[in-house]
Amino acid sequence: MVGGALQIAGLLVGGIGMIGTFAVTGMPQWRVSAFIDSNIIVFETIWEGLWMHCIRQANIRMQCKVYDSVLALSPDLQASRGLMCAGSVLSFLAFMAAIFGMKYTRCTQSPWQAKGYIILTAGLLFILSGAVELIPVCWVATTIISDFYNPVVNVAQKRELGEALYLGWVAAFCLIAAGATFCCFCRCCEKTRSYGYSAPTHYPTHSQHLHRKTESSYSKSQYV
């Protein structure tokens, strides 16, 4: 009962992390324009993502344009494209493996030991996808912060942390938590099976003891 609830909790948390990873990959709010100029009235907001950049004017009109070339992006955004795509694929594979390895899933007639290996694989894939997602999110955040406090960088080129980065941290935490849940579940199952498979100690009964004594006395009488 507890194992089934643990599996369902891990699957739900992993599904939230997978959906969050897909959303972060497509969101344009990775880098947001910083309002640090002396002019308080700002008419437009600039969003820069992995695939496009958007300009929102006075909270009414928004225009987005896909990047013409990958080489036009900064090195952190170029690497983030590949890493986020890899993290999305890994999270999807981990989610599907977790579904197939669930205790109450009967899509395949596989033994419980094989399902345990599938659950362990899903947990490791969840942890790997969360780690892969953390790399680009932390890299872009570090670049934004360093450029923001760099006096050499022009004020118009300074950016702030966008909503996609915060969502990326939450999604990565959910993926790692789901992976740790599945790995702990497999560990507990291994201990349970090892205790269940241990052979009990058999003590000789009174009838067996008498039978042995009769055999020994009969063997001695043969020599007389």
If you had to describe this structure to a student in words, what would you say it looks like?
The protein has 224 residues and is of the alpha+beta class. The chain has a domain at 1-26 and 75-192: Butyryl-CoA Dehydrogenase, subunit A, domain 3 (Up-down Bundle), CATH 1.20.140. Helix content is 62%, strand content 10%. It has helices spanning 2-26, 75-100, 112-148, 163-197, 206-221; strands spanning 31-33, 44-48, 52-57, 61-66, 159-161. The protein has a 5-stranded antiparallel β-sheet. A hairpin with a 3-residue loop joins strand 3 and strand 4 (61-66). Helix 1 (2-26) runs antiparallel to helix 4 (163-197), helix 2 runs antiparallel to helix 3 (112-148) and helix 3 packs antiparallel against helix 4 (163-197). The longest helix is centred in the middle third of the chain and has 37 residues, at 112-148. It is elongated. 27% of the residues are buried.
Which characteristics define this entry?
224 residues, disordered C terminus, Butyryl-CoA Dehydrogenase, subunit A, domain 3, alpha+beta, 5 helices, 62% helix, five-stranded antiparallel β-sheet
Outline of this structure?
By secondary structure, this protein is an alpha+beta fold.
Give the SSE map.
Blueprint: H1 2-26, E1 31-33, E2 44-48, E3 52-57, E4 61-66, H2 75-100, H3 112-148, E5 159-161, H4 163-197, H5 206-221
Antiparallel strand pairs: 1-2, 1-5, 2-3, 3-4
Helix pairs in contact: 1-2, 1-4, 2-3, 3-4
Organism: Oceanites oceanicus (Wilson's storm petrel)
Transmembrane segments: 81-105, 117-145, 165-185
InterPro entries: Claudin, Claudin_CS, PMP22/EMP/MP20/Claudin
